[in-house]
UniProtKB/TrEMBL annotation:
It comes from the Bacteria. SUPFAM superfamilies: YceI-like (SSF101874). It comes from Acetobacter senegalensis. Gene3D superfamilies: Lipid/polyisoprenoid-binding, YceI-like. Pfam families: YceI (PF04264). SMART domains: YceI. This is Polyprenyl-pyrophosphate binding protein. InterPro entries: Lipid/polyisoprenoid-bd_YceI, TTHA0802/YceI-like_sf.
Length: 202
């Protein structure tokens, strides 16, 4: 290994170690309060549903935008707003991805955005919270509760932005949002797994 390559490798390892330490040392009550913006490059929404009773099939949405008003002293006062471009849907099948964007499924042309706006945050005192809000998909708005868990916070050594991250899960019935194609052969119940990264703005 060349000296230059070794130096670069050590630098990358050092940055990764610094980030790991920052995240490991963080605790919910130590997170900086303020207004945060979604960091779309590391925010993902994975969906999963039963496919003909054979497999749990998953796909992904990306390109999220939105804000988090975080109050670490009084977490229940925090507020979250997230938007997703429906056309960002991806699966391992190009054909299926195109079908999901079409009128028989998500109809991305007519309903281009999915949104979640929180109405209540109920902390569990252990770094987690139930976040209840209004979820809009396919032109229909219904209540949704997400079970969120704090992952970590600190200064990202790559872009120097103070960042906080959460993991969240939730379940919807797609038929309740007017997406009924192939129900019940293709599962009605859809599990959401969300990785959310937020960068502090002030």
């Amino acid at each position: 290994m060349s000296k230059r390559l070794l130096t670069c490798s050590l630098a990358v390892v050092g940055m990764a170690a610094s980030l790991s330490m920052a995240l490991a040392e963080g605790a919910p009550q130590q997170v900086q309060s303020g207004t945060y913006k979604v960091e779309p490059g590391h925010t993902q929404v994975v969906f999963s549903l039963l496919h003909f009773g054979f497999t749990n099939y998953s796909g992904l949405f990306s390109g999220a935008s939105g804000t988090l008003a975080l109050d670490s002293v009084h977490p229940a006062a925090s507020k979250l707003t997230i938007s997703l471009p429906v056309s960002s849907v991806q699966t391992t099948s190009d054909r299926l991805t195109d079908e999901l964007k079409g009128a028989d499924w998500l109809d991305a042309a007519k309903y281009p955005t999915a949104t979640f706006v929180s109405t209540q945050v109920a902390p569990d005192g252990k770094g987690g919270a139930s976040i209840t809000g209004n979820f809009t998909l396919h032109g229909i708005t219904r209540p949704l509760t997400l079970q969120a868990r704090y992952v970590g916070s600190g200064v990202n050594p790559m872009d120097k932005a103070y960042t906080v991250g959460f993991q969240a899960t939730g379940v919807i019935k797609r038929s309740e949002f007017g997406v009924k194609t192939y129900v019940p052969m293709v599962g009605d119940e859809v599990t959401l797994a969300i990785a959310g990264a937020f960068e502090k703005q002030n």
